[in-house]
């Protein structure tokens, strides 16, 4: 096995014992990036010299007797998360030359733990999309089949983990953007509860649902990363004050799920669901039952409103959050204007891509006088009903099992001219985001594809708020 193919759990004792060094592990990942990324295009930037220096510093810490955690573990980070001194482009021409003046809280915590940042990964521009085709720097390709999308918006991070360019990656999930690409690429993708991980230093998309989380090779690895990045933060007033669980303990010696009841939401198993996906989720349910869990059908009647609610609230918050990119305080400046109004139009027109413009226009319309009550206010009311659906379900069951995506990865370009079809891709992942609940996509096997290699399928496990430990425990059983 090449060093870059190791999991965090496999690498940890090798690093602690001195069998391998952090520099060797980092070099192996950098070599894999150099070898594989020209075809996959996961990375927007690679900081090799800095990474090797950080690796040498980690080796010194280990020689001095420090052990454990993520010390010496190389990772990649989605390029909408600030890392001091590095380009943070959000895959947009609007801020293509922006260098972050400070570290996001998650980056600061990973640095303190001794994790080694290799570079920044591709995404849909400002995280607007489900395929990583909306990047201003071109699409990322699925390492399982280069003719297909990796999912989005954290497609670069998911593809990097799936192709062993790093031992884990950070992504952000607003309405499925960690879980969806995890499903398409066959890796673990964890969206923590809203507020469990600080958003400080994340370029805001939808402030009421944005969450940073890990993409990893195993449930244990996802738990190891969450253990470091979770917790309250004075710089983010939305972080949860509750103490962080011992996630590693939850996944270390999982033998059964005796006493747990897993809900099977009937609204997630529609006739439109790909039959191959439905079969894999049924197999996942049997695994949970074999481990001692009880399966129970539940109803989430407001599920059908998840997509329309999400695509009213999200463009509205995007319109507000992207207003700061005006070419003066932030962003591309086009100096060919005769007045301020023209300057804004030229700068924002040249800086934003088609999907960002579409969402800005939708959100601005929804928030405009005369429409706010009819659309935004109504959507927030229905969101409350979706939250109540989950609350009622969790009175009867401990966890929910659903598909992550309605089908395997689709071809690059297949939906690019049909925005509505792309929005419908989020059908199974928006609910947990709107309710602020923890959810993980777990690899659930492969399905045959026409004229290509078998494609991964993801099973989604959703838990009550701040029940990441329980979610990870069930994910470990499916693993």
Strand order of the largest sheet: 1-3-2-4-6-5-10-11-9-7-8
Q: What percent of residues are in strands?
A: 5-15%
What name goes with the CATH superfamily of the domain at 3-252?
Answer: Amidase signature (AS) domain
Q: How would you spell out the order of helices and strands? A: HHEHEHEHEHEEHHEHEHHHHEHHEEH
CATH architecture of the domain at 3-252: Alpha-Beta Complex
Rg measurement, Å: 21 Å
Quick take:
The protein contains 16 helices and 11 strands. It is of the alpha/beta class. Strands 1-3-2-4-6-5-10-11-9-7-8 form an 11-stranded mixed beta sheet, sandwiched between helices.
Structure report:
With 479 residues, the chain is α/β, with parallel strands linked by helices. It has a domain at 3-252: Amidase signature (AS) domain (Amidase signature (AS) enzymes). The protein is built from 16 helices and eleven strands. The protein has helices spanning 8-17, 22-40, 48-63, 105-113, 155-162, 179-185, 219-229, 247-252, 275-290, 306-321, 340-351, 354-367, 372-393, 419-424, 430-435, 468-478; strands at 43-46, 74-78, 116-121, 168-173, 188-191, 211-216, 261-265, 294-298, 399-403, 439-447, 455-462.
């Amino acid at each position: 096995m090449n060093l870059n193919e190791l999991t965090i759990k496999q690498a940890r004792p090798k690093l602690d014992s001195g069998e391998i060094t952090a520099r060797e592990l980092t070099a192996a990942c950098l070599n894999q990036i150099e070898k594989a990324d020209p075809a996959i295009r996961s990375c927007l930037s690679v900081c090799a010299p800095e990474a090797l220096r950080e690796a040498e510093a980690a080796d010194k810490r280990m020689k001095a007797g420090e052990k454990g955690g993520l010390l010496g573990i190389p990772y990649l980070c989605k390029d909408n998360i600030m890392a001091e001194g590095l380009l943070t482009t959000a895959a947009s021409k609007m801020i293509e030359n922006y260098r972050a003046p400070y570290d996001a809280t998650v980056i600061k915590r990973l640095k303190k733990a001794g994790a080694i940042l290799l570079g920044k990964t591709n995404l849909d521009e400002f995280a607007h999309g489900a395929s990583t085709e909306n990047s201003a720097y071109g699409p990322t390709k699925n390492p399982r089949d280069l003719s297909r999308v990796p999912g989005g918006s954290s497609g670069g991070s998911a593809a990097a983990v799936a192709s062993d360019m790093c031992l884990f990656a950070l992504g952000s999930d607003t309405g499925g953007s960690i879980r969806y690409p995890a499903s398409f690429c066959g890796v673990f993708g964890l969206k923590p509860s809203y507020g469990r991980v600080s958003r400080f230093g994340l370029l805001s998309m939808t402030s009421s649902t944005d969450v940073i989380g890990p993409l990893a090779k195993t449930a244990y690895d996802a738990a190891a990363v969450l253990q470091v990045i979770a917790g309250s933060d004075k710089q983010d007033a939305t972080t949860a004050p509750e103490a962080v669980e011992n996630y590693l303990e939850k996944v270390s010696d999982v033998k059964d799920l005796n006493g747990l009841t897993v809900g099977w939401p009937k609204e997630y198993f529609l006739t439109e669901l790909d039959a191959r996906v439905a079969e894999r989720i049924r197999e996942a349910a049997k695994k949970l039952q074999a481990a001692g869990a009880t399966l129970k059908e539940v109803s989430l009647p407001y599920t059908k409103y998840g997509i329309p609610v999400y695509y009213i609230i999200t463009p509205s918050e995007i319109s507000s959050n992207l207003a700061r990119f005006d070419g003066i305080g932030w962003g591309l400046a086009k100096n060919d204007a005769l007045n301020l109004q023209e300057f804004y139009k030229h700068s924002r027109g040249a800086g934003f891509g088609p999907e960002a413009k579409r969402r800005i226009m939708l959100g601005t319309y929804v928030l405009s006088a005369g429409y706010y009550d009819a659309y935004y206010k109504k959507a927030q009311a229905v969101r409350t009903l979706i939250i109540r659906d989950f609350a009622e379900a969790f009175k009867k069951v401990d966890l929910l099992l659903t598909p992550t995506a309605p089908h395997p990865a689709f071809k690059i370009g297949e939906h690019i001219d049909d925005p509505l079809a792309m929005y419908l891709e989020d059908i199974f992942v928006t609910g947990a985001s709107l309710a602020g609940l923890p959810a993980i996509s777990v690899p659930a096997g492969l399905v045959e594809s026409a004229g290509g290699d078998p494609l991964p399928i993801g099973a989604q496990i959703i838990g009550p708020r701040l029940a990441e430990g329980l979610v990870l425990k069930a994910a470990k059983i499916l693993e």
